[in-house]
Amino acid sequence: MQPSPHSLTVAGRTYRSRLLVGTGKYKDFAETRAAIDAAGAEIITVAIRRTNIGQNAGEPNLLDVLPPSQFTILPNTAGCYTAADAVRTLRLARELLDGHALCKLEVLGDPASLFPNMPETLQAARTLVSEGFEVMVYCTDDPIQARMLEDIGCVAVMPLASLIGSGMGIVNPWNLRLIIDGAKVPVLVDAGVGTASDAAIAMELGCDGVLMNTAIAHARDPVLMASAMKKAVEAGREAFLAGRMVRKHYSADPSSPTTGLIGS
Q: Closest Cα to residue 141, out of 167, 165, 169, 102?
């Protein structure tokens, strides 16, 4: 597929969709597949420590529902709290996925906030990049640390909008813009999206994509919410490309002509 202003390119591969979707928290695999189809997502994240993709013989295998022939599987290290655990988990994922290099790194600081542990994240990133992994990395919205991850060789940085699963939306758009403006790799919002308007705002800010799970899986109607998120990401991208009008504080601009009026 040839890149276009609407497509997303990560690690040299181009995707039509800028919406990445997780596979956890759905009631069953059938709902997972239906939501992902409605979202139009092509990159699907899988928590290796929580989801069977072949490591547990005899259990239902997610890859039977979401085959790698149809989707790019993005193994992630959700639930890891040290660099060593994260690296070990992704080595297992690469073995299970026949040498698949693209991965999502996340190293958490504590189970209450699920905030990134950045020293451990940086350490894991260095190891994984040195071993040939193509690392997309969950991180804080700190532009300095985002640049450090890029300098290490990560193929995408994924700052949180707000805490994982919180649904609070984008709490610090200014930091996101600093990261976006300074990055030479894709910047994708990861964590905190609660509804479609949050996804649209992320894209309007200039993010290259959005990753979400809970916002879809915990909606009253996950499949309908997935469809809404698809539209929101597309609309936000189009608005960013179109360029919004300049904000005019303390002044109005009539939408109708003020010259050539009847009687004037």
A: 169
d(CA 52, CA 23): 11
**Angstrom distances, CA of residue 86 to CA of 119, 122, 252:** 13, 11, 54
Complete DSSP assignment for 157-192: EEE-SSSTT-----S-HHHHHHHHHH-SS-BEEES-
pTM of the model: 0.88
| Residues with a known catalytic role | 104
77, HSE (Cβ side, Cα atoms, 13 Å): 34
Tally Cβ neighbours within 10 Å of residue 83. 22
Report H helices in the chain. Answer: 29-39, 62-65, 83-96, 118-130, 143-152, 173-182, 196-205, 214-217, 222-242
154 pLDDT more than 60: yes
